[in-house]
């Protein structure tokens, strides 16, 4: 059995599609309110 070169694993990971998320799931993971906002910090649904 031949092993894949180490760089191939990184390439596969980079090309892997992102997980399917609902809009609210994406917002919970990625949206941050600025310090000047009434409720600063990570977005929570």
Automatic annotation (TrEMBL):
The protein, known as: Uncharacterized protein
Species assigned in the record: marine sediment metagenome
